[in-house]
Amino acid sequence: MEKINYVLDDRNITIYKNYDEGDVIYLCESHSDDEMMEKISARLKKLTGKTPWSFVIFDVKDWNNDLSPWKGRNSKDEDVFGGNGSKTLEWIKDRLIPFVEGEDKYSHRYISGYSLAGLFALWAFYETDLFDGVGSCSGSVWFDGWDEYMKCASANKPSKVYLSLGMKEEKTKDKLMATVGDRTRMQYEMAENDPSVEEKILVMNPGGHFTEPENRIASAVAWLVKGV
């Protein structure tokens, strides 16, 4: 497996390549935890064997602002989400994808993310026809207004949807975040009823939100590229 580091528009980008061609997967993440990225790529390699893929991790500096699709409040009714997700998505489309892919011909292009990045990945998938599938791990679908958004959203082409959640995540006293279970199940039901979503899965993992995120991400990506 090959690892390549770049800087694009003052953002750090790391690409892990498991043989040439195959699928390309984009992951929204912070480069502050290099150890976690190494664990994800190693686990992904173990799960996929010789399946070719390129795994692209790009930097997100202002998590709450850069990954929120619109402005929103937290459970304390504080305005903490700036709603700059459209700028991030525009950068992915106009700068990141052309930079990474160039003239290469990948079989499929996917997007994935964890927590708020999992919500952003879902939104980016439904907002555009850029991606052939999405992996949302412990996605923050409790986000203000997401329940209304998902009722109107549909996939733009034949695609795959991977959803996962920790079984303890909805068992919280925080009323807003406690909705994550029902909303995740609604998200899966939406995928089931979408004729453009050819493959879909909902995985319930042991533990809470912070339990083995690297394994959850790797499992999502492996399912997208190999169906395992």
Largest sheet, spatial ordering of strands: 1-2-4-3-7-8-9-10
User: Pairing-aware structural class of the strands and helices?
Assistant: alpha/beta
What is the first-to-last residue Cα distance? Answer: 19 Å
Order of helices and strands: EEEHEHEEHEHEHEHEH
The level of helicity is 25-40%
CATH architecture: 3-Layer(aba) Sandwich
Q: What is the β-strand count?
A: 10
Largest sheet properties:
8 strands, mixed
The helix count comes to 7
Strand content: 25-35%
Describe this protein's structure.
The structure is a single chain. The chain has 228 residues and is of the alpha/beta class. It has a single domain (2-226), classed as Alpha/Beta hydrolase fold, catalytic domain (Rossmann fold). The chain contains seven helices and ten strands. The strands form two sheets. The protein has an eight-stranded mixed sheet, with helices on both faces. Strands 5-6 form a two-stranded antiparallel ribbon. Helix 1 (34-48) packs parallel to helix 7. It starts with a strand and ends with a helix.
